[in-house]
Amino acid sequence: MRVVLAEDSGLLRESLVNLITYFDHQVVATAATAGELRTAAAVFRPDIVVTDVRMPPDHTDDGLRAAIALRRDRPSLPVLVLSQYVDSAALSELLRSGDAGTGYLLKDRVADGAQFVATMREVGGGATVIDPDVVRRLLTRRDDPLLRLSTRELEVLALMAEGRSNAAIGRELVISEVTVSKHIGNIFTKLDLPADEISHRRVLAVLSYLRG
User: Fold this and answer.
1) What is the pLDDT of residue 198?
2) C-alpha triplet 169, 174, 180: angle, nearest 5°
3) What SMART domains has UniProt attached to this entry (predicted)?
C-alpha cells in the first residue's frame, strides 16, 4: 500500500516509516502538521492515511479534522487514526465521515509492529478496526440503550466494534455463524436501528456502543 503518514513527533514518525517499509509498504509522504497532511494526501493520492489525532497548529484534534476534511473530497479514502487517549466523540465523527476503511488505535498498540501493520492492511482493505482497549474502556461508561442487550449480545457487539466478521465472532465465542447473525439481528432491534439502513447497521450499532 501507498501510505501518507502524519505524526508531529519526529522520532515516532521515523520509527513508523521504518516499520511500514519493513513490511513492504511504501510511505509516499510524511507530514508534521495538519496542513502538510492535507497537501500530501491531495498530491500523492495514497491508499491509506495514517495520522495522529493531535497535530500542529493547535495541538488539539487537528490531525483528525484534516482526515475528515480529506474524506469530504474522497469518501473512499481509508484512514487509520492514532491517539494517546480515548475520545468517543472523535471516533464517532470519524466513523461517519466516509464509507471506507476506518481504524482507531491507541499509540501503545504501535509497540507491536506486526499487529499495527496488520491493522493498517485491514483498514486499507475496507475494514473498521477499533482498538480493543478503547472498546473495553468505553464499555464501562455506557448506559442505555445498551442495557437492553444481553451479556452475549454485548460480547458480539464488542467484537463487531473491533472490526470482526461474523465468522471471526463465531470462532471467538465458539458459536455458529447462524447464531451470530441472530444475535446481531437482536442488537439491531434493541438499538432501534432502522431497517432501511441495512448496509450501514453494523456501523450504526458500533456508534451506539461508543457514544456517550
Assistant:
1) 47
2) 45
3) HTH_LUXR, REC
